[in-house]
Amino acid sequence: MTRTAAGPRTGRARLFVLLGPAFVAAIAYVDPGNVAANLTAGARFGYLLVWVLVAANAMAVLVQYLSAKLGVVTGRSLPEVLGERLPRRARLAYWVQAEVVAAATDLAEVIGGAIALNLLFGVPLVLGGVITGVVSLLVLGVQQRRGQRAFEGVVTSMLAVLTVGFCAGLFFSPPDPAAMLAGLVPRLEGADSVLLAASMLGATVMPHAIYLHSSLARDHLHAPSTSVPRILRATRVDVVLALILAGSVNIAMLLLAAANLAGREGTDTIEGAHAAIAGTLGPVVGVLFAVGLLASGLASTSVGAYAGAEIMSGLLKVRVSLLTRRVVTLLPAILLLMTGISPTWLLVVSQVVLSFGIPFAMIPLVKLTQDRTLLGEHRNALTTQVLAWVVAGVIVALNVTLLWLTFTG
């Protein structure tokens, strides 16, 4: 009897140990770029675009699972597999576009941290960017000295902090339940809502999260006795739980803006939205929101630097320390902050650059995970493959739409 009762508990404990990589990758879904988009959507269109975030999160679950599955089954990351299969010139060209995407990612995240420090302590943006970079160096130092599990713990703790920071306002001003449910019905109102929906949907799946998740899943597994099917089951649970959390945070931000910022002037920037939230709900909620933004910036910039190192290692077979990567990728963000250009405009530009990188990550991932010679019996089933191509097509089409609308005004 004792042996029988202990079995399920042991199984659940082993399952729990296998969780973690998706919660690190999920940071990409609640970075400062997402904050800006969600607040703008709620402030300008109320509850209209709730369905966009629900649809985006559903697509992200499939994409991140495929990335993790590639790492679990092959024992190699997506950049490593591509590095093995691409000829030298194609590999170098692919690496260049991936590095541009990594730089754009870092720009958005450093700016988010700098804005948060400015809101909390009045720190100038340039100094705030430097501080964000230094703190992210300390976070990356945890990975270097204590290993991936410790790094996952730190990043997941930041995810918890930003969840509280971004969701706290809903307890002070709950959304309208009827309007929230109505927002689940897909519909749009005018060209501006189309542009914003394309931005929210098309920029949800970040290229660096796709590259990194395969690496995280590969490195997380230190139990060779655990069967691949069992690991994949745990991976599905990991991805679903992590993205439910990230999706809930995104929806909470939109609901907070819809309930408190709709129709108000000056909410088209993060600073303006923060001022409106603090003015409407009180300084405590304003501080909590800024703390959430700070945690978002610090966590996402650390994860972004980690992704950049994995991309370089996989494609070029050159391993650069995370600390070196952090210093190199921080410099462009600091220089751009020194120009005095609007931080919100820089965030928008960074999201446009990221849009260019989506097809280069999505299409190879879908092709590789259907390859029998690579994944064997674990390759995508027909239904999964059809869904994966549909999701890839939708995301790529929306990013093309976003780019076209951006450049044509």
UniProtKB/TrEMBL annotation:
<feature type="transmembrane region" description="Helical">
    <location>
        <begin position="193"/>
        <end position="212"/>
    </location>
</feature>
<dbReference type="Pfam" id="PF01566">
    <property type="entry name" value="Nramp"/>
</dbReference>
<feature type="transmembrane region" description="Helical">
    <location>
        <begin position="239"/>
        <end position="263"/>
    </location>
</feature>
<feature type="transmembrane region" description="Helical">
    <location>
        <begin position="386"/>
        <end position="407"/>
    </location>
</feature>
<feature type="transmembrane region" description="Helical">
    <location>
        <begin position="121"/>
        <end position="142"/>
    </location>
</feature>
<feature type="transmembrane region" description="Helical">
    <location>
        <begin position="154"/>
        <end position="173"/>
    </location>
</feature>
<protein>
    <submittedName>
        <fullName>Nramp family divalent metal transporter</fullName>
    </submittedName>
</protein>
<feature type="transmembrane region" description="Helical">
    <location>
        <begin position="12"/>
        <end position="30"/>
    </location>
</feature>
<feature type="transmembrane region" description="Helical">
    <location>
        <begin position="320"/>
        <end position="339"/>
    </location>
</feature>
<keyword id="KW-0812">Transmembrane</keyword>
<dbReference type="InterPro" id="IPR001046">
    <property type="entry name" value="NRAMP_fam"/>
</dbReference>
<feature type="transmembrane region" description="Helical">
    <location>
        <begin position="92"/>
        <end position="115"/>
    </location>
</feature>
<keyword id="KW-0813">Transport</keyword>
<feature type="transmembrane region" description="Helical">
    <location>
        <begin position="45"/>
        <end position="66"/>
    </location>
</feature>
<feature type="transmembrane region" description="Helical">
    <location>
        <begin position="275"/>
        <end position="299"/>
    </location>
</feature>
<keyword id="KW-0472">Membrane</keyword>
<keyword id="KW-1133">Transmembrane helix</keyword>
